[in-house]
Amino acid sequence: MVAGVLAIVIEGTMRVGGIEKVFEINQAQGRINFFNFDPNPGVRHTVWALTFGSMVDILGRFGVSQASVQRFCAVPTQTKARIAVILTVPVLILIWILSCLSGVVMFAYYADKKCDPLKAGYVKNPNQLIMYFMMDILGYPGVPGLFVGSVFSAVLSTVSSIQMAVAAVTWEDILKRPLGHLSEVRQTYITKVLVVLYGAIGTGVAFLMSNIGGTLIQMGISFVGASGGPLLGLFVLGSFFPWSNWIGAVVGGIVGLAIPLWISFGAFFIHVPRSQYLPTEISGCPVNTTVLNITTVPPSVPLTGFNTVYSLSYLYYGCVGVATVVIVGLLVSLITGPRATKETDPKYLLPLFDWLFCCLPRRCRQKLQCGIDYENAKRFSNNEDICKNISENTKGDEQQISMLQLEDDHKYTSDDKGLSRLQRNSEEAAESLIENNKEHSL
Q1: Which of 22, 47, 16, 52 lies closest to 33, judged by CA?
Q2: What gap in Å lies between CA 367 and CA 197, rounded to an integer?
Q3: Whole-angstrom Cα distance, residue 323 to residue 257?
Q4: pLDDT tens figures, 236-250
Q5: 128 DSSP 8-state letter
Q6: Using CA atoms, how far apart are residues 69 and 128, in angstroms rounded to an integer?
Q7: How many whole angstroms separate alpha carbon 17 and alpha carbon 19?
Q8: In angstroms, rounded to a whole number, what is the distance separating the alpha carbons of residues 326 and 244?
């Protein structure tokens, strides 16, 4: 994928006339705006939306999602899992930079030609622009297939792991109890059928998304944030608040999943006034061009009152899910009876106030943490881990010692047998000698 996108960026930049001209064209036509600090949550892209929305999205994907946790469990130690995550960071940064550069270069290329393919009717969907751009600048035999293959290779690796993770969750949480008596071969067949089933569902959803307006990246982040945010909220609720109970977690999880999904579906299927496309030119296109009126949207009544929630930026859907789960979960836990902090093992909690107020005295931090002493708990947990490692390491030594004892016992037993045999032979020789002496005396 990196090679395919990099080829588009390099070739497009060369066609435009250099990277400086690319950014000059984008800056002149208002396509670059790095420092938009508007606090309005209805603005699509701001510094705040990208910072907090992306933070929740990344934490949900790489911290608590089933696909990521399944990969973490595949490595032998926690340190190696951390190293794997750290190594992922520069690769993701490179992919995001190249993806943004491909859009910047594509706009500069068509702005320089004064021919917008979307407005001119060459493509019917903005998601088709990158493929059209690739065919326009790299339309050599075989090259488009290589580009599509590079993109699909990256997509399929992620989709396959997600399908396997969902199938594993379905089997462990739903089907294992009624069907656990089956043989391992049949259980494997069932999980494979589940993978195929979820793949078919994903294909159907892809066809459905193709008929919905908007870009795929916006739709993907919207629905992933609406579903991944509540999952992250459950981990936050259980890790930072020891008095939360299972009732609050269940109710908060359901409400936290329903509200972001409701907002996201409402924003897509209700006539929400969307931001206009910035002006483009088609004066450089051929004369027989069918111009599409893409600068206007279907007439809609401005949202007022409670309906203004549908104008929320799609980057905030995950934040809404996390906040809803935590707030509703804590309220329900307090109403139904909070859990005693002594019943919660401190090793499953995160010392939030130790991180935020590390300069405060230990007694003050302990009061903020509901009386939980994380330092002693951490020391006790480390001692338990050390004892566990020692016991695991000494298992082999104990087995070796027992084998040596058995060998020694066998050796001692064989030696005893040899001594008894020698003693018996000596006694027989003495008796024969005595008899011979008697005969000689006679």
Answers
A1: 47
A2: 51
A3: 11
A4: 998 888 889 999 999
A5: G
A6: 34
A7: 7
A8: 9
The Cα–Cα gap between 82 and 88 comes to 10
CB atoms within 10 A of CB 306: 7
Q: State the angle between helix axes of 143-170 and 129-137 in degrees (0 to 180), rounded to the nearest 10.
A: 150
Contact between 1 and 148 under an 8 Å Cβ cutoff? The reply is no
Neighbours of 26 (CB within 10 A): 17
Q: Which tokens is 316 given?
A: 């905030």
Contacts of 46 (CB under 8 A, 6+ apart): 36, 37, 38, 39, 40, 313
Q: How far is the C-alpha of 12 from the C-alpha of 22, rounded, in Å?
A: 9
Amino acid at 174: I
Diameter of the chain measured on Cα atoms: 148
Q: How far apart are CA 208 and CA 215, in angstroms?
A: 13
Task: State pTM to two decimals.
Answer: 0.73
Q: What is the pLDDT of residues 46-58, one digit of tens each?
A: 999 999 998 998 8
| Residue found by looking up tokens 């695991």 in the block | 392
